[in-house]
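Just curious. Invent one:
>
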Amino acid sequence: MNAMFKKIAVKNLSEQCQLASPVPDYDHYDLDSPAISLMVDFNKTPAITVAASLTVNDALELMRTNKIRALMVLDSRGNFVGVVTAMDLMGRKPMAYANEAGISRVEVQVKDIMSPKSKLKAMARADVERSTLADVVRVLKSLNEQHILVVEEAAEGMQISGLFSASDFKRALNIQIDTAKIANTFMDLERVINENKEVM
């Protein structure tokens, strides 16, 4: 039995040894670049999720910590039920819901202001793989959205396998996809978090 094992050499680490970091598939983007090159691929990077029962302030903190502007929302059974964005959390939705429900803003939960699954739009991954970044920009602008999901067929049916974010287009191509005023930096997210911790 032991004769089947191969000997693996063990090395000491050198002083110059450093951590590896992912190498981007593309180091230069333009509107003709493949759309898939700027997609957040959930098959490679797990989606950042949030419980539907989490408060909006805690969800904002999770966004700031992970430096993202959209969270996939899960119910108590771990099922995908919607998406909540920085615009949802930092806009008028939380206070409007709090006033309507007769509660304080700090009690508002993600489920109260998220976009439910039934109202979300998505592109087929097969179409994305045949498209350019310019095609995705047109879709985001036509929908007046900051994010759009990517779906593919799976054994259980449709599954979300990716996401496009307008903030990634701003970073990679310096293209602003205006839909409304939202936080431009994570310092803005932190400011809103701190301001709302004081609202009782």
Q: What stands out?
A: Residues 181-186 have pLDDT under 50 and may be disordered. The radius of gyration is 21 Å. Strands lie at 40-41, 49-51, 70-74, 80-85, 115-116, 122-124, 147-154, 157-165.
